């Protein structure tokens, strides 16, 4: 039994340690400043009630990005000093964000202990490395992100902090091997358990999906499959799930070795950054050498986001969640008793709304941020939810879940092909086009302008709000740009009144709603570590079956032109084109 002492270390507050819905994200060079990480961790402990810290069990892991190993040792030593009873760490410090949520909700320690929270070390889909991004966030006992009441307290604490507690003489824990290391400090025993990163999560997935039906699909010579982890933490689960459990070929896995710098890439599963997968699926600029697989998918750095592709076919995240919801009861055993309700983030297309109306399901439109879905799920109001930023999930945990989404699509494909594996395969494209024929098509695109000057971004948003004071003037401007675009009938800043806790979230995005069901939405996003990101969402709903097969960029061209000129995007930002189009 190793003894340790507790030190009180004097510190001073740092500017800008305000966590958003996704936690605190900064460049690594910021986090490695003396006391910077320590301040945030101590401020978090101070924001929690005593019983959530003293004698508690906490999970500390993440996506394995650069600085994670050092951060895990720091947080472990601070946990010991603050009276935490035990810390659970995924082997090699790796746990996907959805797996952390699953561990909090599902894992039972040998002594009957359960986790009451977690420090998750990730900057999500942002790059990693010495000159790139690092992040930290705290999740609560329900497995979901800390609510604003807690994150506000954390921030307040960071502005006044003058000391933190740390067990400086606690030896570094070997996180490469599973097992329990026991220590004793002034407050009593303290244990660190390093456990297999994948086992709890796989057990949960097997309780949700029919693995045998997916295995049959993957064993068919007609069905080919490809999964790209983008060198993120999803790779820690890929071989166990797709190869060992479901029988896929190991050659179907791309970039499935987790790396501190994500192989020098940008671990964001979209058509811009998942270049290798996009090329293999026949969606690149040149035709691939081999016939593309029938199904392809990717996840991001911490494996909570996903992209789904068919052969030469892209499934928008908005369509993906709508199609999962429409097929869940038949195709996924977990939902066989029916869906409690569905929800989407406000910028996500209204494809899910149409499914909810058709199936007579409860429907909710919420601000961007997974915690809003979590509230609905905790209240038993929502089963399936999603957001246009490649996040899809269900009430099995309280985070979005990239691998869950891949398994959901494989389940739908297995269900649609269960009696047809000898015949012509029902493809991803077939499923999507049939969905459009049933529910109509929501043409949709998103333009991201990344690292825009923050002042310029705020001026643009203020200009758009001011414009809304006179919709007749807005419509005059629009008619001067494109006469074939319908009139704006409503303009506002989206505000959400949470039906569970009554909280009100204001200024959640600027909306222009058109007479024909079209929408233009502008949002500022804080997921980057420098500058501001302006997101522009453009949507056109089409019910006419003869018009649902158009190319998306052609169908949306009039609205795109209106959006860019109405907002004076180039004038305010100096950008003639977006950084990313999805």
Widest sheet, order of strands: 1-9-10-5-4-6-7-3
User: What can be said about the biggest beta sheet?
Assistant: 8 strands, mixed
Describe the global form: globular
The secondary structure category is alpha/beta
Low confidence ranges: none
CATH superfamily of the largest domain: Alpha-D-Glucose-1,6-Bisphosphate, subunit A, domain 3
Report the CATH C-level class of the largest domain.
Alpha Beta
User: What proportion of the residues form beta strands (DSSP E)?
Assistant: 15-25%
How many domains? The number is 3
What is the third-level CATH name, the topology of the largest domain?
A: Alpha-D-Glucose-1,6-Bisphosphate, Chain A, domain 3
What is the mean predicted local confidence, pLDDT? 94
Number of helices: 18
Cα-to-Cα separation, first versus last residue:
54 Å
InterPro entries: A-D-PHexomutase_a/b/a-I, A-D-PHexomutase_a/b/a-I/II/III, A-D-PHexomutase_a/b/a-II, A-D-PHexomutase_a/b/a-III, A-D-PHexomutase_C_sf, A-D-PHexomutase_CS, Alpha-D-phosphohexomutase_SF, PGM
Pfam families: PGM1_C_vert_fung (PF24947), PGM_PMM_I (PF02878), PGM_PMM_II (PF02879), PGM_PMM_III (PF02880)
Protein name: phosphoglucomutase (alpha-D-glucose-1,6-bisphosphate-dependent)
Family: Belongs to the phosphohexose mutase family.
